[in-house]
Design a protein that fits this description.
3-stranded antiparallel β-sheet, Alpha/beta fold hydrolase, Rossmann fold, alpha/beta, MES/HNL
Length: 235
């Protein structure tokens, strides 16, 4: 049995893991998901949130020997948490996620990609401290291959995304030495698969995995995602 802590990406919350949690538990694992500050049911004002706030929320939920799974933007908070306290982290799993590079914030890394499919959907709030995703464009970007009704479930739950965490670089001292896995999503319309491949090349060949889906495998193929996480844990 392994212990998993699942961390969502931008504008999402623990709710996006609704189908993966029972699938992991059915395979014999302990699994939980959290709302990062200002996401889901967490009441923190999004304008005040920093990357370290994200990391501290993860650490508050982190038990010894936990596999941390970060989706999309969640790759940065799980890395920062591991930098603060690597001893409790058994493995970092980046699920179609940004993996921090030295001296590069997520916002800067995004522009290393060969295309910017998210850019047309981003709506920056007045004051430029948060942004949202255009609800007319979001289904085609995030949920195009998900079961019917997924967008109806997800869109009302999307929350404003704090800008500050995306503009913060991470000093990489401890996390690169931890066991790490990358799961590339081959039909992703949010983070270009070719850029995911570039990020995954920094991982050992045996720690690179692929799923034939878009940016939301937790909805598109939760059982297959859980089976892959199970295989990673057993390996």
């Amino acid at each position: 049995m392994a212990r998993f802590l699942l961390v969502h990406g931008a504008a999402h919350g623990a709710w996006c893991w609704r189908d993966v949690l029972p699938a992991l538990r059915a395979l014999g694992h302990e699994a939980k998901a959290i709302d990062l500050p200002s996401h889901g049911s967490d009441p923190t004002p999004p304008e005040t949130v920093t990357l370290d706030d994200y990391a501290q929320a993860i650490l508050a939920a982190l038990e010894p020997h936990t596999i941390l799974v970060g989706h999309s933007m969640g790759g940065y908070p799980i890395t920062r948490a591991a930098e603060i306290d690597a001893a409790r982290v058994a493995r970092l799993v980046y699920l179609c996620a940004y993996t921090p590079w030295p001296d590069m914030s997520l916002a800067r890394m995004r522009f290393e990609a060969p295309s910017q499919p998210l850019l047309p959907a981003i709506r920056l709030a007045e004051g430029e401290k948060t942004f949202t995703f255009d609800p007319a464009l979001s289904p085609g970007i995030f949920y195009h291959d998900c079961p019917e009704g997924t967008a109806d479930y997800a869109l009302p739950r999307l929350s404003p995304q704090p800008v500050a965490p995306n503009g913060t670089a991470i000093a990489l001292e401890h996390s690169p030495a931890l066991p790490r896995s990358y799961i590339l999503c081959e039909e992703d319309r949010a983070i270009p698969p070719e850029f995911q491949q570039t990020m995954a090349e920094r991982f050992a060949p045996g720690d690179r995995h692929r799923l034939p889906c878009g940016h939301s495998p937790f909805f598109a193929m939760p059982d297959r995602l859980a089976a892959l996480l199970d295989a990673i844990a057993r390996a």
